[in-house]
Design brief:
Shape: globular
Number of helices: 8
Helix content: 40-55%
Radius of gyration: 19 Å
Order of helices and strands: EEEHEEHHHEEEEHHHH
Structural class: alpha+beta
Number of domains: 2
Length: 290
């Protein structure tokens, strides 16, 4: 039995149930066949190193990747659990510790991939969108471009990052994290950026401000597993703004330059507009103990 998954944005996903197992079939809409090897090998690596994630399913020749309907396609395990709308402090702590373990596990992964939504993409995309946003947003966008160009963070500690660890990319059964999914933005990058991406979704109020208790839980649990350096702590105001900018830009781009897709849909860019504005006006230091 096949069932479409309506949450897809970059890819088209189907639940596939057989008499042997439940799986997820993904048709990759934007990545090439050559690119996909990195993602699937990384997913296998993480699953084999104790990170709760979906292991790709190999065919009879041992390959994870196929072509289907002229697109790269793969089957992966369907994990139990559901995503969260309102994470608790305890769940944020679990996420933070798991993210740190994932970063450490990635240190032994041999693949390399540049961040396709890194600094250069952000600046190019912002320039492309300047003519499509209201004047007030143009001013903020130009100011953020100048700020990010003047405050690069290329040399922070890093390695493999998920780069898209939103609430809908983690599955839970109660307080147990059963799976981190959708590694299809994974790349090499600053580990602090991965923390910022997660914090900007898991630890916020509706107005974009951070919830202090959730931030302490996520960052504190991460810090216990992988020590956040003084250099990273000092860079936090820059990095957390870059993370907010990246998702505002990608959603704006999808809004103004949509791609055709069977069951994909665009996400509202305004939440990340608000988050970026809040970060521009105030960014507290990381809540590190000791």
């Amino acid at each position: 039995m096949n069932e479409g998954i309506s949450d897809g944005i970059e890819n088209t996903n189907y639940f596939v149930t057989t008499d042997r197992q439940e799986t997820v079939l993904t048709l990759f809409e934007t990545h090439t066949f050559e690119e996909m090897g990195y993602f699937l090998d990384l997913m296998a690596h993480m699953a084999e190193h104790g990170i709760p994630s979906a292991h790709p399913i190999a065919d009879n020749d041992g390959h994870y990747l196929r072509m289907l309907n002229d697109r790269p396609a793969a089957l992966v395990e369907r994990l139990a659990g559901t995503s969260l709308d309102h994470p608790t402090d305890s769940q944020c702590a679990t996420l933070g510790a798991t993210l740190a373990r994932m970063h450490l596990a990635g240190s032994s992964f041999g693949g390399r991939r540049a961040n396709g939504r890194g600094h250069d993409w952000r600046m190019q995309t912002a320039g492309k969108l300047l003519a499509h946003v209201p004047p007030a947003d143009t001013e903020h966008l130009r100011a953020e471009m100048d700020f990010q160009c003047a405050n690069r963070f290329d040399n922070l500690p890093g390695g493999v990052i998920h780069a898209d660890l939103f609430r809908d990319n983690a599955l839970w059964s109660g307080d147990r994290l059963t799976g981190i999914i959708d590694f299809y933005y994974a790349c090499d990058g600053a580990w602090l950026y991965d923390i910022a991406v997660a914090a900007n979704d898991w630890c916020i109020e509706a107005d974009g401000a951070f919830v202090d208790s959730r931030m302490r839980a996520l960052v504190g649990a991460y810090h216990e597993v992988r020590h956040i350096t003084a250099e990273e702590n000092a860079a936090w105001p820059v990095v957390v703004r870059a993370a907010a900018l990246r998702f505002w830009l990608s959603r704006l781009h999808d809004w103004h330059f949509p791609r055709p897709g069977e069951i994909t849909h665009r996400k509202d860019p305004n939440p990340f507009r608000r988050i970026l504005y809040v970060r521009q006006n105030r960014t507290d230091p990381l809540p590190l103990a000791g």
